[in-house]
Write a structure and sequence with these properties.
Calcium-transporting ATPase, transmembrane domain; alpha+beta; elongated; 9-stranded mixed β-sheet; Calcium-transporting ATPase, cytoplasmic transduction domain A; 4 domains; Rossmann fold; about 900 residues
Length: about 900
């Protein structure tokens, strides 16, 4: 059926079949596809072709089927041990016990199945939020559509950071480079152009083509889609891929390792007890039953279920708080993060730029006189406040509006919708206030060439046809534009730019930067040819200062990090003085800190040559200015070599290597490129720094919850094993029967453990230093706590059994009922011993957890049913008890809780970090 469908699709595509598009001119391909390069396809034609060719997507990754998830439950070693115990019970003729264990296995499999099914489907749903979009030209308008809606003949519009979503033949390209490593294995960026190529050119050298799954690393382009979906080169490769193996996260590996250790320990104890008993002359049948009982008592059946629930619930919580986790291993790593390298723009600030000041010749004009800007007024700006309509101001705005890739669109309600870089949209908005629009300028001076922004030159240029010549409009970093300028624009004429004037302009740049403004420089010139060099003999026109206010609550978030032992580092491409001003406002540095507290990009070079003192200065720094994406790698390396776990934020395609190298790569969901999002471990839907802090807090909570429920399960199970072993040594009856211990494991293991896994966490969890990355799930203090509580439970149960014989003079069945219920209630109350020592006895993270109280109520109800319900009463072989027995049960079961609380308060179980 699938083959027939594919053949049908291939037959449909013959209408627009284009063989070897790199060998044909773009004009011929556009004609063949029936596409107008200026207008694109009509929406009607696009819908028609979408219906004809189908969605532009590769073969879907096969969803994890319900049957696969069900079969996975049987692969659990714990289930296999229980199954062996059930079979052994049948062999020994104990049909009731064998059936009961089988029922328990079925219950655990059902719970595990539905838990994993829900978790898997939730993760699949979250991944759908990251669907890829693409920009196309339709009906003369550039629209952003879902990539799967792309059709052959669509005109794609690309900029740096975009993911290519089909195979395109280029017909426009400006300084274009792509990363084709996913397709060809070529690690370096590939230059692209539009010329026709020969037939024999291999895939890796087809420089006039863009291929699905590759990424634009630099420049801009337009191309026409020649094939989509499975017909693309990437589609042909993916057709060869049959399956992908699933990889376990580090936490899952550690939990699995812990589970295997417990199983082997259980088998050793079981065999040892059986052998010792038989050698001591005890009944073989009795010792085999005791061994089965020990195996059932020791194994924490609920561990896999609760771990899955805790992780899935944690990922869901983070998604609710705008943090999408791409890899489950990130949940664990988040809890150990101690360094955050954060981009300034959009993460620490609002990414909502406004033009604040414009400097031309010897004048500075205050552009926005709102509350924030009034703080930065000086006499120079007030003197120049009347100059806003001068020729020089309009000239600099003209350049800024022309040399621009952003766009403004008026909505039906009259508001302005902006698209593009915030710096560029701010300049467009400033021009609009003076009646200068890009469309009007382009009508008079059409753009014929664009030289895209280059991190190396720190400039961008556009060429515009004007009266037979070409106007070159340039913008960029002040030092770069001044370096490329030979003249300066004044009120009277264009004069030669002297060294003294350069110094004065740089001083003005410093003054604006000191006030926290992001400063851009503008220049122009006239040339005879559009292929002329854009960055020589420019006429310097002036400076524009832009203000990006800090996000609300950002200072509080940074303080939270400081209290949590997390070092926040601001990484920015801004001028060092601008970075310092923002750092002061954010609280990263104080007024007493000088400029030496702000490190420049050049100081990150040659890390191996740094002295220990220089290296430590860099490690302690909180602000790095003029940092390129490549230098972020050095910053990450510096801190990782120092033993830190580093989180790095990024949004551009050039940030992808840093996002991959960081322990936690964090991409921006709103303004981030698709390349950055795919390289990241976590995506911020709101681009807010506070969301990172929340995610780290949740990461710590999840790990601590996992520790709590593991400690709870193991201490309860150890208490059961030790009680059985102790009673065997003292020649007392077994304190619980196999069916009784199975009932307790089903009741008192799962419900309280799940409740602990769903806890909101301790209030002071962000008031302590992060744990180290190599710290095990159960540290030494946790093992001491498990052993101590388990031993107390065992002693109390054994004492209750002995007291039932000696004090109340009970028969064997009644005494065992007392020890069974004592063990059950002691395990229920033990959940309150999982609190942190720093918390209050009555008000803590356990008592505030509504799920804990619900689980306690359910467990108590089920234990009472075990004692009184006629049917269950018979199956579990329990006896009716008098008031004295119940006083003994309740009194004895509370002893582990009380002693546990005393030991917690005395710090017996205290973590070394406490």
């Amino acid at each position: 059926m699938a083959r027939e469908k594919q053949n049908k699709l291939n037959n449909n595509q013959k209408k627009f079949s284009i063989t070897k598009p790199w060998t044909l001119s773009s004009e011929k391909i556009l004609n063949s596809l029936g596409t107008d390069p200026e207008n694109g396809l009509t929406k009607t034609e696009a819908r028609k072709r979408l219906k004809q060719y189908g969605a532009n997507r590769l073969r879907k990754i096969k969803k994890k089927s319900a049957w696969t998830i069900l079969l996975n439950q049987f692969k659990n070693v714990i289930i296999l041990i229980l199954a062996a115990a059930s079979v052994l019970s049948f062999i020994l003729g104990d049909w009731m016990e064998g059936i009961a264990i089988g029922v328990a296995i079925a219950i655990f499999i059902i719970i595990g199945f539905f838990t994993e099914l829900k978790a898997v489907r939730s993760i699949e749903a979250l991944r759908k939020l990251g669907s890829v979009n693409t920009n196309v030209l339709r009906d003369r308008q550039i629209e952003t559509i879902e990539a799967q809606s792309l059709v052959p003949g669509d005109i794609g519009v690309f900029e740096g950071g975009d993911i290519v979503t089909a195979d395109f033949r280029l017909f426009e390209a400006s300084k274009l480079q792509t990363d084709e490593s996913t397709l060809t294995g070529e690690s370096l960026p590939v230059d692209k152009q539009t010329d026709v190529l020969s037939d024999e050119v291999p895939l890796a050298e087809r420089s006039n083509m863009l291929y699905k799954g590759t990424a634009i690393t630099r420049g801009s382009a337009k191309g026409v889609a020649v094939v989509t979906g499975m017909e693309t080169e990437l589609g042909k490769v993916s057709a060869l891929v049959e399956e992908t193996e699933e990889e376990f996260t580090p936490l899952e590996k550690r939990l699995n390792k812990l589970g295997y250790k417990l199983v082997w320990l259980t088998l050793i104890i079981t065999v040892l007890v059986a052998v010792i008993g038989i050698l001591a002359g005890k009944d073989v049948f009795l010792m085999v039953k005791t061994s089965i009982l020990l195996a059932i008592a020791a194994i924490p059946e609920g561990l896999p279920i609760v771990a899955t629930i805790a992780l899935a619930r944690g990922v869901y919580r983070m998604a609710q708080k705008n943090a999408l986790i791409e890899r489950l291993s990130s949940v664990e790593t988040l809890g150990t993060t101690d360094v955050i390298c954060a981009d300034k723009t959009g993460t620490l600030t609002q990414n909502r730029m406004n033009v604040a000041r414009i400097a031309v010749e010897d004048q500075v004009m205050e552009w926005n006189e709102d509350k924030d800007q009034s703080k930065r007024e000086d006499s120079e700006s007030r003197d120049s406040s009347q100059q806003e309509t001068t020729k020089l101001i309009r000239e600099i705005l003209n350049i800024g509006v022309l040399c621009n890739n952003a766009a403004l669109k008026k909505n039906k309600n009259g508001s302005i919708k902006t698209t593009g870089d915030p710096l560029e949209t701010a300049v467009l908005m400033a021009g609009l206030k003076k009646g200068i629009t890009r469309d009007e300028l382009l009508n008079n001076m059409p753009e014929v060439r664009e030289v895209s922004f280059d991190p190396d030159t720190m400039m961008m240029a556009t060429f515009h046809k004007k009266n037979g010549d070409f106007l070159v409009a340039v913008k960029g970093a002040p030092e770069a534009v001044l370096g490329a300028s030979s003249y300066v624009l004044t009120k009277d004429e264009e004069t030669e730019l002297s060294d003294e004037q350069r110094k004065e302009w740089m001083s003005q740049n410093d003054r604006m930067a000191n006030q926290g403004l992001r400063v851009l420089a503008f220049a122009k010139k006239k040339v005879k040819h559009k292929e002329a060099s854009p960055y020589q003999d420019l006429i310097f026109s002036g400076l524009v200062g832009l203000w990006d206010p800090p996000r609300k609550g950002i200072k509080k978030s940074i303080d939270q990090c400081r209290n949590a032992g997390i070092h926040v580092i601001m990484v920015t491409g801004d001028h060092p003085r601008t970075a310092r001003a923002i750092g002061l406002e954010l609280g990263l540095i104080s007024e007493n800190d000088g400029e030496e507290k702000v490190f420049k990009s050049k100081e990150l070079k040659n890390l191996d040559d740094l002295s220990n003192k220089e290296r430590q200065h860099l490690i302690d720094a909180s602000i790095f200015a003029r940092v390129s994406p490549e230098q972020k790698l050095d910053l990450i390396k510096l801190h990782q070599e120092n033993g830190s776990i580093v989180a790095m934020t990024g949004d551009g395609v050039n940030d992808a290597p840093a996002l991959k190298k960081a322990n936690i790569g964090i991409a921006m969901g709103k303004r981030g490129t698709q390349v950055a999002r795919e390289a990241a471990d976590m995506i911020l839907k709101d681009d807010a720094f506070s969301t990172i802090v929340t995610a780290i807090s949740q990461g710590r909570v999840i790990f601590e919850n996992i520790r709590k429920f593991i400690s709870y399960l193991l201490s309860c199970n150890l208490g059961s094993v030790a009680a059985v072993a102790l009673c065997s040594v003292l020649n007392l009856p077994l304190p619980v029967m196999p069916l009784q211990i199975l009932y307790l494991n089903l009741v008192t293991d799962v419900f309280p453990a799940v409740a602990l896994g769903l806890g909101e966490g301790e209030e002071g969890i962000m008031q302590r230093s992060p744990r180290t990355s190599g710290e095990p799930v159960l540290a030494r203090n946790h093992l001491i706590k498990i052993g101590g509580l388990g031993l107390i439970i065992a002693l109390v149960v054994t004492a209750a059994l002995a007291a039932a014989f000696v004090w109340i003079k009970m028969n064997r069945d009644q005494a065992v009922t007392v020890s069974f219920l004592t063990l059950g209630f002691a395990r229920v109350w033990n959940v309150f011993n999982m609190r942190d020592r720093r918390s209050n006895f009555f008000i803590n993270e356990i008592t505030r957890n509504k799920y804990v109280w619900g689980s306690v109520a359910v467990c108590c109800f089920l234990l009472l049913i075990a004692a009184f319900a006629p049917g269950l009463h018979t199956v579990l072989a329990t006896s009716f008890l008098d008031i004295k027995s119940w006083i003994l049960i309740l009194g004895a079961s509370l002893i582990p809780l009380l002693l546990g609380q005393v030991m917690i308060q005395l710090g017996v179980f205290t973590d070394k970090k406490s």
